[in-house]
Automatic annotation (TrEMBL):
Family designation: Belongs to the chromate ion transporter (CHR) (TC 2.A.51) family.
Keywords: Cell membrane, Membrane, Transmembrane, Transmembrane helix
Localization in the cell: Cell membrane
Superkingdom of origin: Bacteria
Protein name, per record: Chromate transporter
Positions of transmembrane segments: 12-35, 83-104, 110-131, 143-164
Membrane topology: Multi-pass membrane protein
Lineage: Bacteria, Pseudomonadati, Pseudomonadota, Alphaproteobacteria, Hyphomicrobiales
Pfam families attached to this UniProt entry: Chromate_transp
Amino acid sequence: MPVSTPEPPSPAQLFLIFARIGLTSFGGGLSGWLLREFVQQRKLMSEEDFLNGLSIAQALPGVNVTNMAIWIGYRLGGRNGAIASWLGIVVPAALLIVLISTAFSALAGFALTHVALAGAACAAIGLSLSMGLTAARRVPRRAFPLAIMAATFVAVAILQWPLIWTVLVAGSLSVAVSYSRG
C-alpha cells in the first residue's frame, strides 16, 4: 500500500501557520518550532531537507528564521507560498513587539518583569540547543565534516574571530570538499 504524502498548505494556510509560530515563540528557538511543525507533525518535508534549508538560511544574510520561512514557503507553495510565509512570520510578530515594548516600558520598574524575561531567555536557549543537537546528529560521521564543525566552534566561540570570515572560509572549504567528493 503506497504511503500518501500530505497535501501542501495553501498560501493562506502558510500565512496562518507562520503567524501562529511567530506569535507564540521567540528567541533562537524558532527553528525548533519550524522543525516540529513541518517535519515532525505535518510531515511536509524530511528532516534532511529541513536541515539543508536551515543551512542555506543560516548562510544567507538576514534573520535566519525569516530566511527559513521564505525557503519553506517557496518549497511548499512556490512564490506565493514564500510571500505568505514571510508576511506571516514578520507582520503579526512585529505588531506584537510594538505592543509588548509599550507595555514593557510601563512595567520595567518591577522585578517580576526582569525575572519573566530571564525565564523566557532560558527557554529560548534550550530550544536552540535542541536544534543544534538535532543538526549535529545529522552531520556525517566522517573526519572532515566533524573537523569543520569543531574548527568553526573554536574560531567563533573561543577565539572570537569574526563570524562572517569564519563562515565564508569554513563554508567555502566545506562546500568545495563536499562537491569534489561527488
